[in-house]
């Protein structure tokens, strides 16, 4: 998968997008899909 440094950066981004009180749920979902696709997981 990803090298350790990139994995930690991706995980930090994903967690910050997942646990937020600012973004609308639809926007959060789009961030999740985009992040998953960037990591190579396609729906």
Your description of this structure?
The chain is mostly helical and 43 residues long. It has one domain. 67% of the residues lie in helices and 0% in strands. It has two helices and no strands. The mean pLDDT is 82.
Q: Termini, distance in Å?
A: 17 Å
Secondary-structure element series? HH
Task: Please give the number of β-strands.
Answer: 0
Shape: flat
Q: Which bin fits the share of residues in helices?
A: 55-70%
Briefly note the structural class of the backbone.
mainly alpha
State the helix count.
2
Unreliable stretches covering 5 or more consecutive residues: none
Mean pLDDT: 82
| Strand content range | under 5%
User: What would you report as the Rg, rounded to the nearest angstrom?
Assistant: 11 Å
Largest sheet: none
Q: How many domains in all?
A: 1
